[in-house]
Design brief:
The chain is of the alpha/beta class. The chain folds into four domains: 98 residues, Orthogonal Bundle (Helix Hairpins); 145 residues, Rossmann fold, CATH 3.40.50; 79 residues, Alpha-Beta Plaits, CATH 3.30.70; 238 residues, Rossmann fold. Helix content is 40%, strand content 17%. Helix 11 links the parallel strand 11 and strand 12. The longest helix has 38 residues. Its main location: membrane. It is found in: Endomembrane system.
């Protein structure tokens, strides 16, 4: 028994056959000394002993007393031994089922996506991977976590309605254990995603401990695979120190992501160009449009980057990647493609990307080639409500974007010494803008009125702290409703229209309908953004470099600009998307889509956002509609 179940099974089997041999010998001896007088009774003694041992035959009515006595003894011995063997097999079967329920068995999948850890964003990650794996007939996602397997399975069943061609396998165990990693097939996985236990609302100390645990998990993956055979590893880390450590462990295989940094940059860009949050949600996942690195089957013809878009029916080139890995978004209009260049294309699916030697569509000459107008940039006024890990990053980004004498103010409920000190350092580093921090009671509508929120261009409400996601989002919605009430009262008293944009950080995507009803023009879905990026980067790590460029104040960013900047008012109306692309090129921009103002509040129509329509698609643009472009600035 000390050697385990298999040894017990062999022992019982050995005793059974020993008993069979002993009782067969006893039966032969009985028949030898006490022969059966009935001539018709001449059984196969070995077979009869065997079936008596397993309980399928009685002692025999026609046998003599000696044969019956041996038969009874045989049946009793068989009853004990065979029952023990059956009981052991049943016990082992139940034990194996129990192991499966506990998630301790070995995973047999190969070329799967391995997720280490289990957090609130797991459902969004799996949903993204399900979409990304639709072209694969039998894809697998394996999850290793210290949570109970049955609880993980129940969570996935309750939150993911359709898995399509993807199977989800869960296993229980420590993510830093080499044995556990080998059980879940880390050596044959195509990519590894390591989730961070810390939430944005957790303390800095807990975030540091969680980061250290993630780095330890990276070391375990490297130890299990060896540095030469590492899969792509995507990790979520809060600390800059631990991000450097993680990337140095395996430079080419580890991609790190900082939730606060990415979301803060998106927040600033979204607040300055309403509608961008929806655009980004369409870009950072497998659902909607994605970035692809496309290389032509033969040598690129001698065409410029300006001519390139019209050689694709579906998909918009936004940049190039050179042979040395250097990536350039929106290269100069006269740039000619090199033989070994890869084109960065935004498209719905890689199967729709096809380069045509001749232009597939010719934009119309509508007389706007020499039309040039710009938006006059003025000083701006922004308000951030709430302090979390994104606030200081957002303040820095605002300082990089806005003009001199602009205002960037901060409102908090609890103005601690740490917040005050960090804010003062930021204000000192950016003396060209006016920065002020105020402490107010966010539950008091009178305190909010004193801020005169209708005087700001944009008010951004960051998620606070709370016991759970529902509580955090409830606080955000309460502030939204109070500010909207102030707007209504102001318009009723003065008759003036409020143009202030409301931006909210929403953690649970299920609350988007409530946010729209609260009057929010744009919103950040925290879990969705980060989960989509984690899922996409796990399958294509090079995409991360595109996101880093897009989310940075340096270089080109995405903007939603009025159509009147590109077309004279009298030319608006029936246009093709190719016309929009050409009009944007005259301003040294890349058009990737349009925004229809009349559908801005319609969730079913993607809030009026249409990305990468076919080149020949007819659009009906009004003076209220906009073009979505990759540009150097907002003007």
């Amino acid at each position: 028994m000390s050697k385990g179940g298999f040894s017990v099974f062999l022992a019982l089997l050995s005793v059974f056959f020993a008993a069979f041999a002993l009782m067969t010998a006893a039966r032969y001896a009985a028949d030898q000394f006490f022969p059966n007088k009935d001539a018709e009774y001449s059984p196969d003694l070995s077979w009869e002993v065997f079936v008596q041992l397993i309980g399928l035959r009685d002692a025999g009515d026609d046998a003599n007393l000696a044969a019956k006595f041996v038969g009874v003894i045989t049946i009793l011995i068989g009853l004990v031994l065979f029952s023990s063997l059956v009981a052991f097999i049943t016990q082992q079967f139940e034990y194996r089922l129990q192991l499966l329920r506990k998630g301790k068995s070995i995973v047999v999948e190969e070329n799967h996506t391995l997720i280490l850890g289990f957090s609130d964003r797991i459902a969004d990650i799996i949903k993204e991977l399900v979409v990304g794996n639709e072209s694969e007939p039998d894809a697998a996602v394996v999850i290793l976590s210290e949570k109970d397997k049955e609880n993980m399975d129940d969570f996935i069943r309750n939150n993911i309605t359709e898995l399509k061609t993807t199977r989800v396998v869960t296993r229980n165990g420590a993510i830093t254990s080499l044995n556990n990693l080998k059980k879940v097939g880390v050596e044959v996985a195509k990519s590894v995603v390591i989730l961070n236990d810390a939430k944005p609302s957790d303390t800095e100390q807990f975030k540091i401990l969680s980061d250290a645990r993630v780095v330890k998990a990276i070391l375990a993956v490297v130890a299990a695979n060896g540095e030469e055979n590492l899969p792509q590893i995507v990790v979520e880390l809060h600390s800059e120190k631990y991000r450097r450590l993680a990337e140095n462990i395996a430079t080419k295989s580890v991609t790190t992501l900082n939730e606060a940094d990415i979301l803060a940059r998106i927040l600033v860009q979204t607040s300055r160009s309403v509608g961008l949050a929806t655009v980004y949600l369409n870009l950072v996942g497998f659902e909607g449009n994605e970035f692809y690195f496309y290389r032509h089957d033969s040598i690129w013809p001698k065409i410029t980057f300006t001519e390139l878009p019209f050689h694709f029916r579906n998909g918009i080139p936004i940049g190039v990647r050179h042979a040395d890995g250097n990536l350039i978004l929106k290269p100069s209009k006269d740039y000619k493609l090199a033989e070994d260049d890869e084109v960065i294309i935004l498209a719905e699916d890689d199967s729709t990307i096809q380069f045509y030697p001749e232009p597939v569509v010719q934009p119309q000459d509508l007389g706007y080639a020499n039309y040039w107008t710009t938006l006059e940039r003025k000083s701006e006024k922004y308000l951030i409500i709430g302090w979390n890990s994104k606030t200081s990053i957002a303040l820095k980004e605002y300082a990089e974007y806005v003009l001199e004498h602009s205002h960037v103010n901060l409102i908090v409920e609890d103005l601690t010494n740490d917040i005050k000190t960090e804010f003062e350092i930021l204000a000192k580093n950016y003396p060209h803008i006016k920065m002020e921090v105020l402490r107010i009671n966010l539950d008091s509508i009178e305190d909010l009125k004193q801020l005169k929120p209708y005087e700001y261009h944009t008010i951004s409400i960051l998620a606070g702290s709370g016991e759970n996601i529902e509580e955090i989002d409830a606080k955000t919605l309460a502030i939204l409703l109070e500010i909207r009430q102030i707007f209504k009262e102001y318009m009723a008293e003065t008759g003036n229209k409020v143009t202030t944009n409301l931006i909210a950080e929403i953690i649970d995507s299920e609350n988007t309908d409530l946010v729209i009803q609260a009057g929010v023009k744009d919103f950040l879905l925290t879990n969705q953004f980060v989960s989509k990026i984690l899922a996409q980067v796990s399958q294509e790590p090079d995409v991360m470099s595109i996101y880093q460029d897009l989310f940075s104040a340096d270089g080109s960013e995405l903007y939603i600009k009025p159509a009147s900047l590109y077309f004279p008012v009298q030319k608006l109306g029936r246009l093709t998307f190719a016309d929009c692309v050409l009009a944007a090129q005259h301003r040294d921009e890349v058009c990737i889509g349009v925004r229809i103002a009349a559908q801005a509040q319609d969730k079913d129509k993607n809030f009026g956002i249409y990305l990468v329509p076919s080149m020949d698609r007819l659009l009906y643009l009004t003076i209220n509609d906009s073009l979505i472009t990759l540009a150097d600035d907002q003007s």
